[in-house]
Design brief:
The chain is mainly beta. Helices cover 5% and strands 47% of the residues. The protein folds into two domains: 284 residues, Immunoglobulin-like, CATH 2.60.40; 121 residues, Sandwich (Immunoglobulin-like). It is built from four helices and 30 strands.
């Protein structure tokens, strides 16, 4: 990433568009071409895709346990579909062409209707040629509000992404060039964060909802000017908050942190060349009423408890540059097979507990995402670790996960480095 762009990125604050709250009326999202000031003011504007005239799309705020209806109008010149990432919803509402729905064709509309069962931080994005449509900007935050909100002065969403962009603002549209697909994926040369608020007071206690909406970039994040705890990962509350240190977010992962503001808050991405400023929260005034105190755990999610696994599968990630040969017919493969096949990777009965060993036999990390469910990462001692919907498996490493497959339907299982997904890292499971 260019030093000039790094310096320029600190000169302007990128704000999320107006929040849309769920009411008795359906929420309307219009997928359309937009012009966006991604680069700092004074540099070129960028022709992108977005929702409701902006990129990112508006922040959607839903209520846990209450039915949401979201009408998507396709004003693009190509088909699309919208996935509600991390929400444990009905299969037909998951937004995956071929598996769960037909494409929303240009000029058509589709209403997605679901009841979010869990509070937390989620997001929505295109799931059709998503390596391109998301890279062009089809994404936005989705928040399911807590029944009892935590004691904070501000609830702030921070959506992070990157783009490969020229100084005149033009996107480099080689979204599926073979070199990128075979390596780490289509990476940007410019990154920034979009915040739902621009300033806070010294002494405020704030909740930060961090979302990595980049198509391929893993973001090691450092939050400066504040101290506190991580309280949730991928929308799921931690049983015990843990101290904030450097946070690593794979594409599609989220983290909720609650921090006390000590000075201007800086969001820095850690790179081999030093820190790269993604966003800032300015200081305006002092909160003299807030008294520092312990940060409490959020209400635990209501999820089925895993039993003894009845099946144990291995999912081997194969291929890519500097990788071994495999039997698939694309750049990447799972278990010697590329892309979606007529038969699922696994068949499960509803409520069945399954253990999956994720083996990364490649030279690159992969963020593996399961639709419609959360799963437990198995910790170093063999116990149940964090609840996630996306897990990062480093190159030449492995990780076990345990999932209770309690949501019937056909569910996508794929790498959320979207270049790797289009390169073959996609499969599915069937839950009866």
């Amino acid at each position: 990433m260019k030093r000039r762009q790094f310096l320029a990125s600190t000169c302007a604050l990128a704000m999320l568009p107006r929040t849309v709250f769920a009411t008795q009326e359906p929420i309307s999202l219009r997928a359309e071409a937009v012009m966006q000031q991604v680069l700092p003011a004074g540099d070129g504007r960028t022709s992108m895709l977005g929702f409701n005239g902006s990129m990112p799309g508006p922040e959607l705020r839903l209520r846990r346990g209450h039915k949401a209806e979201i009408e998507v109008e396709n004003a693009l010149e190509e088909g699309t579909a919208v996935h509600w990432h991390g929400i444990r919803l009905d299969n037909m509402m998951d937004g995956v062409p071929v598996l769960t729905q037909e494409l929303v064709q240009p000029g058509a509309r589709m209403t997605y209707s679901f009841v979010p069962p869990d509070s937390g931080t989620y997001w929505y994005h295109s799931h059709y040629i998503s390596h391109e449509q998301v890279a062009r900007g089809m994404m936005g935050p989705l928040i399911v509000e807590d029944d009892v909100p935590p004691d904070v002065d501000h609830d702030i969403t921070v959506l992070l992404a990157d783009w490969r962009i020229r100084e005149d603002g033009t996107l480099v549209d080689e979204f599926a060039d073979m070199h990128s697909v075979a390596h780490g994926g289509y990476m940007g040369n410019f990154a920034r964060g979009f915040l739902s608020r621009s300033q806070v007071r010294k002494g405020d206690r704030i909740r930060l909802r961090l979302i990595n909406a980049a198509t391929n970039r893993i973001i090691p994040l450092r939050i400066g000017g504040a101290a506190g705890s991580v309280v949730a990962l991928d929308g799921m509350a931690l049983p015990v908050p843990r101290a904030v240190s450097d946070i690593t977010l794979a594409p599609a992962q989220r983290a909720d942190v609650i921090v006390d503001v000590q000075e201007a808050v800086a969001f820095d991405m850690l790179t081999r060349d030093g820190t790269y400023r993604l966003a800032d929260l300015a200081i305006a005034g002092v909160n003299t009423a807030r008294q520092p105190g312990p940060i409490s755990a959020h209400a635990p999610p209501v999820l089925p408890k895993p039993g003894t696994p009845t099946q144990h599968f291995t999912l081997s990630m194969m291929g890519g540059a500097m990788g071994g040969r495999h039997g698939g017919d694309n750049i990447w493969a799972f278990n010697d097979v590329s892309d979606l096949q007529p038969h699922p990777f696994g068949k499960f009965q509803r409520g069945e507990t399954v253990r999956i060993t994720l083996v990364n036999d490649t030279s690159f990390p992969h963020g593996i995402h399961l639709h419609g469910h959360h799963f437990y990462e198995v910790d170093a001692d063999g116990g149940l670790g964090d609840l996630r919907d996306t897990t990062l498996v480093n190159a030449r490493a492995s990780r076990d996960i345990i999932c209770v497959f309690d949501n019937p339907g056909k569910w996508l299982l794929h790498c959320h480095m979207l270049s790797h997904a289009v390169g073959g890292m996609r499969t599915w499971v069937a839950v009866a």
